[in-house]
Design brief:
Helix content is 60%, strand content 9%. By secondary structure, it is of the alpha/beta class. It has 2 domains: 2-158, no CATH class; 163-262, no CATH class. Helix 3 (42-52) links the parallel strand 1 and strand 2. Helix 6 packs parallel to helix 7 (142-155), helix 6 (113-123) runs antiparallel to helix 12 and helix 8 packs across helix 9 (183-198). The longest helix has 28 residues, at 266-293.
Length: 300
């Protein structure tokens, strides 16, 4: 099932790239850009446009091809998973400078809203309200590629290929980690690592490994050696890019707000209670061990 989910989403990001790139230089806050997968049938196009609340004559509409999907996502997902149809779509509303990124999804069941935000900020995308959707449930991987492409063309700037690759790798790695430890924990781990890098607290590979270990322990995440090495490699590549880290922090502000809401929710409180319960049980076990270890033999 998961393999089938990939095939319809690559179009979103490819479309975003294309659409933003063609008009962003002259665009103003409030302008709306829509991307549609080229392989949507007429009924599906109408359905998604109605869902996004726009018509083709009200916004710039860019059609994304399956070839573009393979071009921008082929390094991280197999061709069979990308599939042969471009179906994913999106709506982008440009915001005032300093507004940050705000992502909402519908029928996207692998890549979370926070994962999109994190990866887009890494790629250098700024200040936009983004809505990602599809005619049926899909993984959501395609959207990132489309948006970056659109942003690049719209600003008439070339985003370095390595920066695009890192953004796509970040999204995929976070989603894969989320399958094992949960979406919130995976997103929190990635966000906190980026925040520490932005603060200038990571200078060496050893610093980075210690940081990943420290944050993972605090979140109750057990990383395999493969996962840890993959994160080290990713963030080292990220550090070597010419990224404006203060801008990244500004753009991902919504992630911190969403994670705070989660921790304050019933589910989040349940997670905190379970962690506290674990440590209380551990302390009780240690106390019990010490008590039994120091009982005088004369009391028997």
């Amino acid at each position: 099932m998961k393999h089938k989910l990939f095939k319809s989403t690559v179009a979103v990001f490819a479309g975003w790239f294309l659409l933003v790139s063609t008009t962003y230089a002259d665009a103003a806050p409030g302008d709306v850009i829509v991307t549609l997968g080229e392989d949507l049938n007429a009924n599906q196009q109408s359905q998604l446009l109605d869902e996004m609340g726009v018509s083709e004559d009200e916004a710039l509409v860019v059609y994304v091809t399956n070839e573009e999907e393979h071009q921008y996502l082929g390094n991280y997902i197999s061709a069979s998973r990308i599939g042969s149809n471009a179906l994913s779509s999106s709506k982008i509303t440009l915001l005032e400078e300093g507004s940050g990124l705000n992502v909402t999804t519908n029928r996207i069941d692998w890549v979370s809203e926070e994962m999109y935000t994190n990866a887009l900020a890494t790629a250098g995308v700024e200040d936009a309200e983004i809505y990602v959707t599809a005619p049926f449930n899909v993984s959501g991987t395609a959207a990132l590629t489309g948006l970056i492409k659109a942003y690049e063309i719209s600003t008439d700037e070339v985003i370095p290929e390595e920066q695009k690759q890192v953004a796509n790798e970040e999204m995929v790695k976070t989603a894969e980690l989320g399958e094992n430890v949960g979406v919130e924990k995976a997103t929190e781990l990635m966000t906190r690592i980026k925040e520490e890098i932005a603060e200038g607290n990571v200078e060496t590979e050893e610093d980075l490994r210690d940081l990943i270990d420290h944050i993972a322990r605090e979140l109750g995440i057990e990383l395999t050696d493969e996962e840890k090495n993959g994160l080290v490699s990713l963030f080292q590549r990220m550090q070597n890019l010419n990224i404006d880290w203060s801008q990244v922090q500004e753009q991902i502000g919504s992630i911190r707000e969403n994670l705070t809401e989660f921790l304050e929710s019933e589910e989040g409180q349940g997670l905190i209670d379970s962690i506290l319960g674990f440590f209380e049980a551990l302390i009780d076990a240690v106390r019990s061990w010490f008590s039994s270890a120091f009982i005088s033999p004369f009391t028997k």
